Amino acid sequence: MRDRGKTTGIGSLLKSLVADHKWAAALNRHRLFEFWPEAVGREVAAHARPKVIRKQVLHVEVTNSVWMQQLHLQKGCLLEALNRRLGADELTDIRFTLNFRATFAEPPPPVVAPLPPPDPEKLAKFEQLLASIKDEGVRASLKSIWLAQQGRV
Length: 153
Hints:
This protein is of the alpha+beta class. Helices cover 50% and strands 12% of the residues. It is built from 8 helices and 3 strands.
């Protein structure tokens, strides 16, 4: 029984919950949802996506019957690649189902705001320091590194 006055960290509670219910293997298998596009490639990921893992069987939704046939023919290679990424023989089978309404194209990459231009005074001072370096390639590399760091500190 737990002591009423003592608090337990959430991390240790989660660890004991995972251990008590023997969820470690299932949690490991579900990492697949994170690396699916890298494991199967962008083109496949645009037409197929993992839907659920039941026991050791991965269920994958596919956009059309052509892709379903192609992936079925590559099932052995897919299983091997996915299990290699998972670190063990976590999956024993893949089952494909059609979902004609689905589109699985990857979302567009996040928009990254451009860095603001560097302070002209700081740039002039830095270029004065660079002037003492004779190698033009080294000067260009140092300036590039310095510019990349501006606005990130």
